[in-house]
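Objective 1.3, modelling of assemblies. Example input:
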Amino acid sequence: MNWRTPARIFLIPVVSILLVFLVWDLIIRIFNVEPFVAPSPGEALGALRDNWSILWPLAIETIRETAYGFVLGAVLGFVLAVAMAQTRIVQGLVYPVLITSQAVPIIAIAAPLVILLGFGIWPKIVIVAWIVFFPVAVSVLDGLANVDDDLLKLAHVMGGTRSRVFFKIRLPATVSPLYSGLKIGATYAVTGAIIGELVASTGSSLAGFQRTANSSLDTPAVWGTTILMTAIGISWFLLVVAIERLTTPWRTRSTVRRLPFRRHPD
Amino acid sequence: MTVDTPKLWVEGASKTFEGLTALAPSTLSLQPGEFVSLVGPSGCGKSTLFNLVSGLLRPDDGRIEIDGVDVTGQSGHVGYMLQKDLLVPWRSVVDNITLGAALTRGVTKADRAQAVDFARRYGLGDFLDHYPHALSGGMRQRVALMRTLATNHDLLLLDEPFGALDSQTRLEMQQWLLEVWAETQRTVLFVTHDVDESIFLSDRILVMSPRPGRIVSELVVNLPRPRTLQQMTEPDFIAIKRQILDLLHGTAAG
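Predicted structure (tokens):
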């Protein structure tokens, strides 16, 4: 039994999502729930289709907010972790701030950010970055702290220079933990963008659309929008996983991918 | 440099950790091309002596010379290999072999050519582009030894390199190491717990003893080379083994 064949990698998650929709549909049917209370999956997806021409541009905007915030948060988290790993004093000073930043309720910080940054894309980017930088910083910091001591000794005996050891051993060693942090961040990033839209939006956003649909009791459209938001979150996660597989071939492949003209001389 | 200059000269080197003497003043010398083993129980100062020669530690007293040059407390003068293969998971076999160059000055075409040549000559030709996780334990240790050779130091320090392998693989690796050593003409200082291994490989064996860690005896292994597995059951071999076991047992009991 090979669980890693591509067919199974894709098939199993699809089946499990379909099962969720099936259970949802059964509950609606069995309890005979009215669509304005809670729609069936079909009604929700129907509303999504009917409003697609409005929703798609808004989704693009949400994706942009998520993307910019994600990249900003990842870069900040990574740089911060590398800086913190250099000296104990910096680490001691920064760590409490790191923890505090995550203890602040994100909803509570959203309103002040809007006052500070206006109603544009910036407060959303900052909220997403705020959420993403933490898991990235913590995982990279872990990665830097857990480089095999014996490997560093070997590097020292070989006469390795400080900067080369950093770039050839310490830094590459953070790649795997970095992706763990990015995957955690990816699932929360879209939530951050939506919170930003909710607080800072004048209406032309996914969150704004959903609020309008909610107040006019268009419940299928509310649920349809939720499905769309969730799909963006899942896509984001999958994108990170795909990039991870491409950039860390040593974890999934047994040999280096080598172009024909780069073969070893005979 | 004259013909008489030893490859390695350790003179009265000692090391104390927090009041405990890890290594009492010790003196030893290795001639170019010699294969010398250090044998002894845990805590006998083998690893300390190793770390002094590799430059990881600086002796409290005494000096260390390689080719007549004082290298006391300096790293970057020896090839060094441990029981853990310490292969870098994101580098291929060839790129692991050139790690020393990558960490000191950057990998040149010549380094890569040499790495490919080593790998092909010593049984890794089909695995040049493999990542370490795709190799067996024995193969990984072969790569680790190639990496050690590729640093192009004449003196190799090997600290129980085959200690984690099963006995079958270990025997294969010992024969293979002798082949590599004979062809590349390096000088080897080898640490092991395994008495058979030390006799099979070495020209000389230094027996060490703990509390304080020191060299208590030196035995010359006058078995003809190239060595064969048959020799391991012959009277000469057994006689040396008995001598070493007496020394180890005596010091352990005393």
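Chain B has a mean pLDDT of 92.
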